[in-house]
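It is worth pausing here to work through a concrete case rather than discussing structure prediction in the abstract. The textbook approach is simple: state the sequence, then state the predicted structure, then interpret. We follow exactly that order.
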Amino acid sequence: MRLLLIGSGGREHALAWQAARSPRLTQLYIVPGNAGTRAIPRAENVSIAVEDIPALVAFATQQQIDLALIGPEAPLAAGLADALRQVGVKTFGPSQAAAEIEASKAFAKAFMARHGIPTARFAVFTDFYQAVEHLLKVDYPVVIKASGLAAGKGVIVPECADDAEAALRQIMQAREFGAAGDEVIIEERLTGEEVSLLAFTDGVTVRPMPPAQDHKRLLDNDQGPNTGGMGAYAPAPICPPALVDEFTRTILQPTVDGLRAEGRPFCGVLYAGLMLTADGPRVLEFNCRFGDPETQALMALLETDLLNVLEACVDEQLDAIDLRWKTGAAVCVVLASAGYPGKYPSGRVITGLDIEQPQSVVFHAGTLWQNESVVTAGGRVLGVTGWGDTLREALHNAYVRVATVQFDGRQWRKDIGHRALPLTPVTYAHAGVDIEAGNRAVDLMRAAVKSTYGAEVLAGIGAFGGLFDAAALKGMTAPVLVASTDGVGTKVKLAAQAGRYASIGHDIVNHCINDILVQGARPLFFLDYFATARLEPEVVAQVVTGIAAACREARCALLGGETAEMPGVYQPNEFDVAGTIIGVLERAEMLPRPSLQAGDVLVGLRSSGPHTNGYSLLRQIFADTPLDTVFPELGVSLAEALLAPHRSYLNVVGPHLRQVKALAHLTGGGLLENLPRVLPDGVGARVALAHWPRVPLFQLIQQRGQIATEEMFRVFNMGVGMIAIVAPAEVDAFRAALGEETWVVGELVAGEKKVALV
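Step two, the predicted structure:
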C-alpha cells in the first residue's frame, strides 16, 4: 500500500508510527510532517500546505496513492476528502457534509436534537445583544462556545454572568476566533467526569476504541487556561467496557445512522466528547477525526494492522475486521513551549530524543529539523507516550522518558492520569507529605543511579545506608580518604523558573569533584540530598539523572542519598540540592605540595559559566529579564547561559596531577578568595587580567549590574574555573598535555598571602 497521510502534529506522527509497523506498507508520504516523521522508515515528508487542496489532489494522483488518511479537521471541513475521492483516491475521512458534525457546533446541536442524542440544553445566536438577553433569562450555569473550528480553544467556561458576557464579547466582537465566532452556542454547563470515546466507522458499522481521558488545562490539578490538550491516557476506568458498549449503542451508532439518513455518510473516526453526569451521559461535542493527544495513547495500544482497519473502513467492510487492542494502558504526556497556550518562542534545540527507554516513544508535534538539530516550532512540541500492563506502569514509563528530553522553557503536567489512580488516604499526606510520590521518585531514578554502580557497590539505592567495598584500597601504600559536602545554592531558583533541572545534577557532583581534586583525590562515591516543599517525582528524577550522568563521567558510584519533602520549610515550587563526595589519594601525592614558591606559574582553565556561585546577585541583576531572552553577545538564551552545568576538571587535570604543585577551584569568593587558600605563608599571587579573553556573559553581568571589577573577581570566576600552579619548567609540557586552550594568568610572588590584580 502507498499511503498518503495529511497533517503535521503529534496525532499524525503516532499514526505514521503505527502505519510503518505494517508489512503491507510500501511507501508513506506525510504532508507536511515534522522532524519526527522524517525519520520513519519508508516515509517521506512532502512540503505541501494542508489547505492547498488542488496541490494535494495532484500529488495523490501523480504518486498513485492507494489510500489517503486525513488527520486535521480543517482540510476535512474544507472538502479535501471529497476532492480526493473524485479523482479515485480511496480516502479515510468524512466528506465535507459529514464533517459539519465538528465544523459547526450549531449544526451538531441541532442534529442531536433531531435524533434524540443526549446533550446539554442550548441556544444558538448570531446577534450579540440577543445572546446577552438570553444570558439574563437562563437559571443555570453556562458554557460559551464558538460554533466554528477554533483549534480546540473556542470554549470558555465563565464563572459568573459578567464573565459570560465578556466571553460573548471576546468571541463575537473581538474576533479572536475569526469566522468561527460569527455564531455562538450558549450551553448548559454540565458537571461530571469527561471521557473521549473514539470509534472507527465505515458509515454503517461502528467499532469503538478504548475510552480515553484528555487533560485540557495547562497546569496540575486542572488549573490554568484551556489548551489543545496537555496529555491523555487510555483506557479510562471511569468508562468500563459495559458503558462503552452502551454508549456505542445509544450515541455513536445513532449518530452514524442519522448522518447516513440525512445524506451525509460518515467514513473515518467519529469522536464523541462525553460528560458522565448524575443523569446519564451527555455529548459535549463531536469531532470528525482522530483526537490529539488521545491518538498518541491509543496508537500505542492498537494491535490490529492499522492499514487493514483503514482499508476496511473505506471499502465498507469494517464488520469483517478483527479489531484488537493490547491489554494494559497507555499514557501521553505533552511537553509544551514556554508561554503556551499564549505567545511562545520557537527554535529551541531539543536534546535527549535519541535516548531509548523501554515501552515508550516520543511523538513530535511542533518540531522542525534545522541546522542538523531538532528544534521547537509550536506550542505543543512533543507527546511522550508510555505503555505497560497497568496504568501505573504506563505512567512510570512515560515520565521516565520525559526526564530524558530537554529544551529551554519546556512545561508539562505532572499529574496525567491522576483521576484514574486509586485514592488511598494517608494521614501523612494530609500534612503535605506524599509517601507515594517519594516511592515513585525512587522508581524513576533507580535505573539512572544503578548505571553508576561497579562491583565495589554492595548496597545502594533503597538501602538504609550505602555499602562500598574498600578492598581496592589495600593496594595503596598510604591511602587517605578525602570528603567534601556542598550545595548548589540559589542557582536552583533559576532552574525551577526555567523548568530545566538536569544541569543541577551535574552542578552538585562536579562542584564536589573539583573540591576534592584540589587535594589530589579521585572520587569513589557520591551521596545526594534533595529537599523540597512538595515532591514532584519527575523533577527529582531529572535532577538525579543529571547527578548519575556526572558520576558516570567521573567513574564515581552514586550510592544514593535522601529525598526530603518538607512543607512549611520550603516555599511552594522551591527545592534545594546538596551532596557529599568521598575520594581517595596516596598520602605522598597530597596537594598542595610543600614545594610551592615564588616564581611558580598560574595556568588558568576555562569555566563553563558562573558555575554555582553568585546566583543571588545574578537573580537580582536579571530580575526583570525573561529567561528566554537571547542577548546578541551570548548567542543563546539567558537561561541556557546561566544554567550551563558547573564544569568538572577531573578528566582534564586528573591524569596530570604529578606535574601540578597546587590547584585552586574558583568557587564562592572568586579568584580573590580561593587562590590564597592553597598558598603558604609568605607567598602571594599576581594575576594579569589581560592574559585571558574577556567572557561576554561576565561583561554583560558587570555592565547591567554596574559592578566594580574587583567585586566581579570576588564573586565570579570570570571565565577561569580552575587554576593549576606548576613549576616554570613544567608549564609548556603541562599545557600541551591538557589538550585544550589554557592561559598563563600570572605567577606566585614573595609577600603577603593575597592576590594582586594587574
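Step three, interpretation. Residues 485 and 580 are 4 Å apart (CA to CA). Residues 423-435 have pLDDT under 50 and may be disordered.
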